[in-house]
Amino acid sequence: MTAKLNIDEANNALKDLNSCLSEDKKWILQDGKLTKSFTFRNFIRAFGWMTEVAIWAEKLKHHPEWFNVYNRVDVALTTHDAGGISELDFKLAAKMESLLA
């Protein structure tokens, strides 16, 4: 089981995750979850990215909460077994970012 991060650990991990992202593309901590909205050129790009993320999520055995409408995907990550945000959430978020390239 993965351990829940305390607020300082989560904020430090958030700073590392966001270090290479522009101000308008950063992840945030909101309502006990790691969240971000992604916008793509069209539905096919959004769905293709979601498919790639789904493969990695299955490998990590960690599945995102997400919502897709046309070219937008809203993501919320939390580790239910840990009762909050864990390293696994930041690992999946980093993988999501790498799949954008």
TrEMBL record:
Keywords: Lyase
CDD domains linked: PCD_DCoH_subfamily_b
Single GO MF descriptor: 4-alpha-hydroxytetrahydrobiopterin dehydratase activity
A family per Pfam: Pterin_4a
Annotated catalysed reactions: (4aS,6R)-4a-hydroxy-L-erythro-5,6,7,8-tetrahydrobiopterin = (6R)-L-erythro-6,7-dihydrobiopterin + H2O
Top-rank taxon: Bacteria
Database matches in Gene3D superfamilies: Transcriptional coactivator/pterin dehydratase
Coiled-coil stretches noted in the UniProt entry, renumbered to this chain: none
KW Lyase (keyword) present: yes
GO biological process per UniProt: tetrahydrobiopterin biosynthetic process
EC number: 4.2.1.96
Family indicated by similarity: Belongs to the pterin-4-alpha-carbinolamine dehydratase family.
PANTHER family from the UniProt entry: PTERIN-4-ALPHA-CARBINOLAMINE DEHYDRATASE (PTHR12599)
Record-linked HAMAP family: Pterin_4_alpha (MF_00434)
Name the UniProt record assigns to this protein: Putative pterin-4-alpha-carbinolamine dehydratase
The organism of origin for this protein: Alteromonas confluentis
